[in-house]
Amino acid sequence: MSLSRTIETPDIADALAVKRTPRKHVLDLDDFSQEEIAGVLESARSMKEVLGRDIKKVPALRGKVVVTLFYEASTRTRVSFEEAGKVLSADVINMAASGSSAEKGESLLNTGLTIQAMGVDTIVLRHPHSGAPYLLAQHLDKVSIINAGDGLHAHPTQALLDLYTVQDKLGNLEGLKLVIVGDVLHSRVARSNIWGFAKMGAKVVLSGPGTLMPPDLLPSSKSSARSQLASLVEVDTDLDRAIEGADVVMALRLQKERQNAGFLPSLREYIRRWQVTDDRLAKAKPGAMVMHPGPMNEGIEISTSIAHGGNSVIEDQVTNGVAVRMALLFQLTTGTSQNP
Ligand code: CP
């Protein structure tokens, strides 16, 4: 199978005939039902209670082994998976491509087979190529795969922690208006959040420069080029209009490392039209939540006063990420969402 850096449609799993149920892997949220998402959020609530104890340790995954296998940089996702596994008493082994035999040319598949042969239970994979976790899920029959971000395609655990954070603050998700603003084209976070929030009954509006909107999400694209996600979102490139009445505003990082020439007229113009600022947030609902998956470019997609202001839940997102990842590790390893 060739892996591609291009934006994949959400049909990767179908194309590879990855077995979806009973749940063995977390690859994206497209195959999660509303009930299953609600179950993960409920389980995460119990895990958060564990994290609030003086001694943050339960024996739920004692004797289980989790490998975090990261071919891309990460702070939040990698550290929170490590913490999640350790709080549950799993043995967590962190492996970066750098310093591994990937540097000698070992393929992802052979790396996965090698790790599986060591008796590991779960592999948490981040990879620059869309579809990489699906490849391992297809060929490794003894381990669970969790997608910790693949190319431009999906970041389902980020979306689940975002859903948890909103539900935690606002009580429910149904009927909320979520505006996702910025570099949607390069954002796997946006794509997984569209699935998650739409499945939970929220309205999702995308805003940003037309050049940073994925063609498969645009209503103007030919129907054959549109993905299933297109029917779940509205697109409004005018942020001042899109943000009106929003309950939640999620700013996305301008992914400078993935920018080819020509996506932006200029950084100054981008900041002027699409930065989340106090003036813009005043058009959203009073008390609207501001989110960012991180890492932030403060002063570009989000002003410093908003990033660290009273509406920001950015640090809550990070905190909740540990609980949500505990819930997922527990569920995949034990086959149950019962509390540990
Ligand atoms: N949100 C997110 O995936 O952050 P990291 O790249 O730091 O893991």
* Overall mean pLDDT: 92
Helix content: 25-40%
Let me know the largest β-sheet.
5 strands, parallel
Under the CATH scheme, the architecture of the largest domain is 3-Layer(aba) Sandwich
Using only CA atoms, what is the Rg? Answer: 19 Å
**DSSP strand (E) fraction?**
5-15%
Number of extended strands? 9
Principal-axis shape equals: globular
Q: Report how far apart the termini are.
A: 39 Å
CATH class of the largest domain: Alpha Beta
**Attached small molecules:** phosphoric acid mono(formamide)ester
How many domains make up the 3D coordinates? 2
SSE string, helices as H and strands as E: HHEHEHEHEHEHEEHEHHEHH
**Relevant CATH superfamily of the largest domain:** Aspartate/ornithine carbamoyltransferase
Provide structural commentary.
The chain is α/β, with parallel strands linked by helices and 340 residues long. The protein has 2 domains: 3-151 and 319-334, 3-Layer(aba) Sandwich (Rossmann fold), CATH 3.40.50; 156-309, Aspartate/ornithine carbamoyltransferase (Rossmann fold). Helices cover 36% and strands 13% of the residues. It has a 5-stranded parallel β-sheet with strand order 7-6-5-8-9, with helices on one face. A 4-stranded parallel β-sheet has the order 2-1-3-4, with helices on both faces. α3 crosses α12 (314-334). Phosphoric acid mono(formamide)ester is lined by residues 74-77, 149, 158, 293-295. Phosphoric acid mono(formamide)ester binds at residues 74-77, 149, 158, 293-295.
